[in-house]
Amino acid sequence: MQKFNDIIDRSLVPVATKLNNQRHIAAVRDAFMLIFPLTISASLVILVNNILFSNDSFVVQLLRLSSVFPNLESAQQVLSSVANGTINIMSIFITYLVAQILAKHFDADSTLVGLTSIACFMILYPKPFNADDLNVVSTQYLGA
Questions:
Q1: Cα 44 vs. chain centroid, distance in angstroms?
Q2: d(C-alpha 19, C-alpha 16), whole Å
Q3: Dihedrals φ, ψ of 102, to 5°?
Q4: How far apart are CA 8 and CA 138, in angstroms?
Q5: pTM of the model
Q6: C-alpha span between 62 and 126 (Å, rounded)
Q7: What angle, 0 to 180 degrees and rounded to 10, lies between the N-to-C axes of helices 72-88 and 90-105?
Q8: Contact 35, 93 (CB under 8 A)
Q9: SS3 label, residue 77
Q10: Which of 34-48, 63-77, 95-109 has the highest mean pLDDT?
Q11: Are 138 and 126 contacting, i.e. CB atoms less than 8 angstroms apart?
Q12: Residue 109: what pLDDT?
């Protein structure tokens, strides 16, 4: 086993160190680390939603919560919209944060660069479609 660890240390550790020091990959890594609290909060909301508010849940059936709270499905819809909203906006946050971190590395105006990256993201985003006389942007390409 020690021989295997030595081979890994000689071959993969230098490559991993170089990748870790590369500024673009480090910016993506740091952006995901900054967005991590949003990911955790959305995960907790999804967990609570599926355990406490789903009629199929073991906890709901065990405690007979559907007879005590007859509107569990409406509460589940509220929490699912919260979870979808936090997860779907992640790509916009990541776009902003990666550009902001790189701008700080190059000593540029980080806010302006971040806003420009969001503008470029929206320019490249698929065309909005018309639904009920409103222009709607699809959330298909947003999210994690």
A1: 13
A2: 5
A3: -65, -35
A4: 44
A5: 0.75
A6: 46
A7: 30
A8: yes
A9: helix
A10: 95-109
A11: yes
A12: 93
